[in-house]
Amino acid sequence: MRPVTPRLRLILEVFAGLALIAGGLLFFGATRTDAWWSWTIAPPLTAATLGAFYWAALVLILSAARSKTWARARPAVYPVAVIALLLLLITLIHIDRFDLDSLFGVFWVVVYALLPLVLGLALAEQLGTRGEDPRGEQRLPGLLRSALVVQGIVMVAAGLLLLISPGAADDAWPWALSPLTSRAIGSFLFGVGLAALIAARDDDPVSFGGAAAAYTALGLLELLALNLHIPDLGDRPLATTLYAAFWVAVVLTGGYGLSAARASSRS
After folding, report:
1. Range of the structural domain that residue 245 is part of
2. What is the per-residue pLDDT across 157-188, written as a single tens digit (0 to 9) for each?
3. Spatial separation of the C-alpha atoms in residues 210 and 134, rounded to whole Å
4. Secondary structure tally for the chain: helices H, strands E
5. Residue 217 has pLDDT above 70, yes or no
6. Which of 47, 82, 134, 225 is such that its CA lies 20 to 30 A from the CA of 243?
């Protein structure tokens, strides 16, 4: 079995630290992004939503960094790489929105200019190592696998819509988004959806354990962000209900995945 290379493990640990800080600044400082973030985000619900994504990414990245084999780390690493690349692209598209006179703005641009390159080089080294990546003997429960496929497709589709045509989501999203924040949320949705589809394809409950923890954390954090910033919601009750129901489904799916992973580890 191929182990995770020391270089990739180190990079993932650095990524985890950055995700921890970014999540804290956005979630706890949702109302102060004018002073404590790379660009001003309004309303605060949008900032908290992005903070929840960063903290869920933290759980996902740590699960990959602590994995002993590439087969266990792979389902988390590829989505993280995709999210980093998409955030670089939207940074280049909306560079005029960033506060390049502040440390936060410059830090964002430098970090996202470097992250895809650094991770790409580490991935090339990882894929060049010798060894096999066997799949475990256990399989995901059919209901769990189906839920991951459906939710993955929904998130990938929603992410693409927010990325490609931010204005097209105005009536479907529970609150108003700017083109930049629409694309930022779309980047995370696309990456998380990809992670769900990879987990369904790998069909390995043990490998899904770390992703299941991140999945559960994401659903809970997004629901918490929604409850903390209810006044920011627009007059779109159907969109709000569907949005909240989706994250409840994500929490249930993640919890089911954690249960399946524990049961497989004991067998």
Report:
1. 6-266
2. 999 999 999 887 777 899 999 999 999 999 99
3. 18
4. 9, 0
5. yes
6. 82
The verdict on pTM exceeding 0.85 is yes
Question: Do 58 and 243 touch, CB atoms closer than 8 A?
Answer: no
Judged by phi (left if over 0) then psi (alpha if -120 to 50, else beta), residue 196 lies in alpha
Q: Please state the length of the chain.
A: 267
Task: Give the residue among 163, 202, 195 at the shortest CA–CA distance from 179.
Answer: 163
144, containing H or E segment: helix 142-164
Is 84:112 a contact under the CB 8 Å cutoff?
Answer: yes
Is residue 1 domain-resident?
Answer: no
Two tokens, residue 232: 């920011």
Handedness of CA 155, 216, 233, 92 (dihedral sign): negative
Coil, strand or helix: which one is 69?
Answer: strand
Is residue 211 within 8 A of residue 195, CB to CB? The reply is: yes
Look at residue 192 and tell me whether its pLDDT is greater than 90: yes
User: Can you tell me the distance from the alpha carbon of 208 to that of 180, in angstroms, rounded to the nearest whole number?
Assistant: 31
Closest Cα to residue 103, out of 186, 214, 157, 25? 25
Based on the number of CB atoms within 10 Å of its own CB, is 248 exposed (0-12), middle (13-18) or buried (19 or more)? middle
Considering the domain boundaries, does residue 46 fall inside one?
A: yes
Tokens encoding 247: 């994250």
Number of domains in the chain: 1
Q: Which two tokens stand for residue 177?
A: 């988004």
Q: What's the pLDDT tens digit per position in 251-267?
A: 999 999 999 888 776 65
Residues 6+ apart with CB under 8 A from 4: 64, 65, 67, 68, 69, 70, 73, 126
Q: Containing H/E element for 267?
A: none
**CA dist 90 → 93, 101, 183, 184 (Å):** 5, 19, 7, 7
